[in-house]
């Protein structure tokens, strides 16, 4: 069997505002647009990977929050209505997605062997979290690729960012190993924002872009610092500074997805492509691609 | 119309084990029995409203209130999905939800109602309503727990709820769906091995329950921040439900408390506690925190400085404010706006109560719900007469309560409108829903102006 590989890794944030602004037929609420910089960023990401061959999307979303280890969707198909409990006025999306259960189980088993607490989720009534659905839609609106959906183990709640990161680095390693052993080509997605301090009010027209900006200068500085590291291939520095970033920028990296992604990509030392940056209700969001396939080609 | 009241309170655990697997662990079974006992007590109490404050429904944009009259779906827990699914179909008091939402806004809170097909009602609310309200005999309302709210905001949320309970004559039961210590085991365990995660957590839980069994709810509320640091992991929502529950019980320390059960659920502390407002004889409160009536906190960060200063919630300009005067029979309260001259809020003569003219200004902030009628330069503003009228009646209610009276004892009202043509209809609609149901005599006059930029004022005579 051919060795599998990760062909690309992406930071692919999930604010439901992006789906809302786009007015896809699956989403009930309708908007007059908004957050174009980020939506165009997703367009560029999709175009960038349009000619890249891959079999499966592996996503870790901070909004499937589990406190008893890491869980994996374990049934071949999920179809339901996803309503965002925080922004139900914006996101009521009818989803229909396929799961690569074999690969899910392979990652699960390897993680278990590595000493991580894991569980397969096989309850057919389970509703997939809106973070996964939003990232899934923005990355692949055709929904024509099977997915592996990984929960966010909230170990930062019990221990520290350092401990969380150790666990996520391990999970990233076994994710990569399982993909390689599966013989499949995969894109891995970390579905998280950067700085994550929200506004606590919503404008009368949610997509009123005259109201949109970062919540504070400090948050902006942190976001730019992390983006600089990504663009200059200094991902080890991101991991090194993750505890400070997570605490001071109230970053959504507390959910582990960012550390997991960098680990799965073997902590890239080559530049990432920034497809877009923008704020959503004050939080900082970057759409970033690590074109692993190009990097490998260049090194051959 | 009779004045409503909070007739009971309960603390209940959130995890689905009590619904889906009570037989798998003796402690889970005891919690289920306690839940069933609590349900019977609620049924027997004559309650006509259940109010759930759930820690497993976090919100960001202020507080959210469930207003779908009949939400139905299947709930599966994020962690405990292997225990099974809970089908739900609840009876929500939509009218109360909307009234609470309006009361929140009148007190300066960011708030909205939720009514969407398929909205995912959180596990804590599903478990609490499933077990406390079998057959949906009692209408319910659910409110979220805001991740950023502090004690002031949470207290005002409760006071707004009490406003509506009193004004609508409801017999309400308040429920906090919450864990005590919330530290769970981070791996699967055999149900028979379940226990509180650590001795320290257990000791804190028992101290909390000792206080609650003595009815010392406000003491627990004041210890909330400490409790959170000691036995709570940093999940989305902190140990703030006790702030809400204590404010719902007027921050008292002499309730009658009873712990019906205390057991572990996957390491977390689960308890069913009954708190009744009957004074227990234990020492009353030492309430030393701001008894805030209106929230004027950091909401509004979305707006620019100029736009925060919009007419909608702008503080009024106008004459200086006075401390209410004090003479024989005077009735004054911090819960009503300060006078614009040397006079009391009300004066008692025998069993009669004569109120000074009451406007819509808010105590504390002096802001005008619905906005002022003109800005500081005299430029007319587009104000909301209904919001102003409701705020007037709320202020009247607070003054009456201070005097030991209530809205249902109002005998005669003289109303003053600065723009009869524009405002009479809106004013009249709010009247019909409030004092109109009480039935006092009423005279409505058009006048040129009032001392502050408000559109309506009422002069009230009531019985005590």
pLDDT < 50 runs, ≥5 residues of chain A? none
Shape of chain B: elongated
What structural category characterises the helix and strand content of chain B?
alpha/beta
Shape descriptor of chain A reads globular
Name the helix and strand elements of chain B from N-terminus to C-terminus, one letter apiece.
EHHEEEEHEHEHEHHHHEEHEEEHEHEE
Which characteristics define this entry?
heterodimer, A: 300 residues, alpha/beta, Protocatechuate 4,5-dioxygenase, Chain B, six-stranded mixed beta sheet, two-stranded parallel ribbon, 23% strand, globular, B: 60s Ribosomal Protein L30, Chain: A, elongated
How would you describe this protein?
Chain A has helices at 17-22, 36-48, 101-113, 130-139, 161-182, 217-231, 235-248, 257-264, 292-299, and strands at 5-11, 56-66, 70-73, 77-83, 92-98, 118-121, 147-153, 185-190, 273-280, 283-290. Chain A is α/β, with parallel strands linked by helices. Chain A has one domain: LigB-like (Protocatechuate 4,5-dioxygenase, Chain B, 3-Layer(aba) Sandwich), CATH 3.40.830.10. In chain A, the strands form 3 sheets. Chain A has a 6-stranded mixed β-sheet, with helices on both faces. A two-stranded parallel sheet of chain A has the order 3-6. A two-stranded antiparallel ribbon of chain A has the order 4-5. In chain A, strand 4 and strand 5 (92-98) form a beta hairpin. In chain A, helix 3 (101-113) crosses helix 5. By secondary structure, chain B is α/β, with parallel strands linked by helices. Chain B has 2 domains: 5-276, LigB-like (Protocatechuate 4,5-dioxygenase, Chain B, 3-Layer(aba) Sandwich); 307-463, 60s Ribosomal Protein L30, Chain: A (2-Layer Sandwich). Chain B has helices at residues 17-20, 26-45, 94-106, 123-132, 151-168, 199-213, 217-222, 224-231, 241-248, 305-308, 385-402, 420-433; strands at 5-12, 49-59, 63-66, 72-75, 86-89, 111-114, 140-146, 171-177, 256-265, 268-276, 330-331, 346-349, 352-355, 410-417, 441-446, 456-463. A 6-stranded mixed β-sheet of chain B has the order 7-2-8-1-10-9, sandwiched between helices. In chain B, strands 11-12-13-16-14-15 form a 6-stranded mixed β-sheet, with helices on one face. A two-stranded parallel ribbon of chain B has the order 3-6. In chain B, strand 9 and strand 10 form a beta hairpin. In chain B, helix 5 packs parallel to helix 9 (241-248). Chain B is elongated, with a radius of gyration of 23 Å. In chain B, 54% of the residues are buried.
């Amino acid at each position: 069997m051919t060795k599998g590989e990760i062909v690309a890794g992406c930071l692919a944030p999930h604010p439901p505002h992006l789906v809302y602004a786009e007015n896809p037929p699956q989403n009930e609420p309708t908007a007059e647009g908004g957050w174009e910089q980020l939506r165009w960023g997703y367009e560029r990401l999709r175009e960038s990977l349009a000619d890249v061959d891959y079999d499966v999307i592996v996503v870790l979303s901070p909004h499937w929050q589990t406190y008893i280890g890491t869980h994996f969707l374990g049934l071949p198909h999920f179809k339901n209505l996803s309503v965002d409990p925080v922004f139900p006025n914006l996101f009521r999306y009818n989803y229909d997605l396929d799961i690569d259960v074999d690969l899910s189980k392979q990652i699960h088993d390897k993680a278990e062997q590595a000493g991580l607490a894991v569980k397969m989720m096989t309850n057919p009534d389970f509703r997939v979290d809106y973070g996964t659905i939003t990232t899934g839609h923005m990355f692949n609106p055709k929904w024509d690729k099977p997915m592996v959906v990984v929960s966010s183990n909230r170990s930062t709640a019990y221990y520290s960012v350092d401990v969380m990161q150790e666990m996520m680095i391990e999970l990233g390693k076994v994710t990569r190993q399982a993909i390689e052993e599966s013989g499949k080509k995969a894109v891995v997605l970390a579905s998280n924002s950067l700085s994550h301090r929200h506004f606590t009010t919503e404008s009368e027209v949610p997509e009123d872009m005259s109201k949109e900006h970062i919540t504070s200068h400090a948050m902006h500085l942190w976001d730019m610092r992390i983006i600089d590291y990504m663009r200059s291939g200094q991902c080890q520095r991101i991991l090194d500074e993750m505890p400070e970033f997570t605490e001071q920028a109230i970053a959504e990296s507390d959910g582990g997805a960012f550390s997991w992604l960098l680990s799965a990509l073997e902590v890239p030392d080559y530049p990432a492509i920034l497809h877009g940056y923008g704020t959503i209700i004050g939080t900082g969001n970057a759409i970033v691609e690590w074109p692993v396939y190009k990097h490998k080609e260049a090194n051959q | 119309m009779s004045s409503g009241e909070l007739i009971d309170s309960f603390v209940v655990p959130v995890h689905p084990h009590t619904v889906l697997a009570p037989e798998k662990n003796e402690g889970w079974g005891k919690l289920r029995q306690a839940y069933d006992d609590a349900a019977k007590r609620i049924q027997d109490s004559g309650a006509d409203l259940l109010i759930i404050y759930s820690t497993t429904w976090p919100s960001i944009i202020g507080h959210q209130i469930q207003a779908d009259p009949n939400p139905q779906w299947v709930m599966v827990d994020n962690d405990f999905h292997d225990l099974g699914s809970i089908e739900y179909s609840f009876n929500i008091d939509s009218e109360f939800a909307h009234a609470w939402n309006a009361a929140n806004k009148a007190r300066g809170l960011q708030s909205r109602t939720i009514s969407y097909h398929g909205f995912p009602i959180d596990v804590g609310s599903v478990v609490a309503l499933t077990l406390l309200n079998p057959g949906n005999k009692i209408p319910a309302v659910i409110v979220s727990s805001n991740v950023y709210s502090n004690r002031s905001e949470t207290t005002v949320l409760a006071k707004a709820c009490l406003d509506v309970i009193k004004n609508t004559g409801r017999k309400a039961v308040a429920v906090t769906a919450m864990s005590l210590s919330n530290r769970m085991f981070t791996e699967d365990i055999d149900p028979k091995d379940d226990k509180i995660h650590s001795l320290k957590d257990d000791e804190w839980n028992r101290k909390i329950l000792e206080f609650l069994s003595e009815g010392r709810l406000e003491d627990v509320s004041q210890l909330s921040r400490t409790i959170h640091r000691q036995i709570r992991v940093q999940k989305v929502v902190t140990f703030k439900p006790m702030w809400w529950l204590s404010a719902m019980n007027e921050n008292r320390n002499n309730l009658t408390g009873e712990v019906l059960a205390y057991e572990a659920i996957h390491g977390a502390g689960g308890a069913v506690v009954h708190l009744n407002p009957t004074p227990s004889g234990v020492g009353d409160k030492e309430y030393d925190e701001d008894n805030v009536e209106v929230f004027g906190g950091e909401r509004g960060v979305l707006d620019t400085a100029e736009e925060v200063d919009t007419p909608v919630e702008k503080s009024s300009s106008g004459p200086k404010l006075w401390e209410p005067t004090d003479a024989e029979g005077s009735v004054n309260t911090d819960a009503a706006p300060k006078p614009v001259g040397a006079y009391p809020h009300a004066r008692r003569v025998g069993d009669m109560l004569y109120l000074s003219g009451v406007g819509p200004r808010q105590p504390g902030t002096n802001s005008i719900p619905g906005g002022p009628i003109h800005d500081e330069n005299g430029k007319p503003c587009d104000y909301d007469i209904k919001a102003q009228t409701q705020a007037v009646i709320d202020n009247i209610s607070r003054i009456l309560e201070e005097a030991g009276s209530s809205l249902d004892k109002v005998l005669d009202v003289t109303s003053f409108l600065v723009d009869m043509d524009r405002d009479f209809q809106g004013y009249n609609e709010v009247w019909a829903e409030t004092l109109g149901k009480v039935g006092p005599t009423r005279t409505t006059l058009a006048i040129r102006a009032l001392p502050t930029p408000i559109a309506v004022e009422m002069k009230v005579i009531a019985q005590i």
